Amino acid sequence: MRWILASLLFCSLGAGAQNKLTPVDEGAYQKLLAANKGKVVLVDFWATYCTPCRAETPKLVALASKLSARGLQLITVSADEPEQEAAAVKFVADQHVPGPAYIRKAKDDDKFINFVDPKWSGALPALFIYDRTGHKVRSFFGETPVKDVEAAVVKLL
To answer: What pTM did the predictor assign?
Structure first.
């Protein structure tokens, strides 16, 4: 019976979705990158209140689907506030974002932003590309054509 309920919950949320986002701070972010060594990692920082973020997400999901077999891993990190987490969870499910998905839960947002990239102001959307060894090789701040992101990723695959 529990299996049936779990299956129904999974189906209602969508493949790869979950009913909460995994919190990430500086330490968790570093561990997340380390766990994905051997893959090219595209980290997408977004928020539900960010119109360009919402427009970009389906394009990034399509890119990840297209290139995952070649070694691309998409990681999404919501910058929404805790009271907006339910909306973020719904958005991730509606967009079929491959899971797990994360939410920023840093004690000090400025410290977290500087940890991710000292050149980043915290503006959204923000994309960071890491090579197979875990080194950041490219950052995109603000609206970026997905063809530019794809070109940068393909060079690393």
So the answer is: 0.87
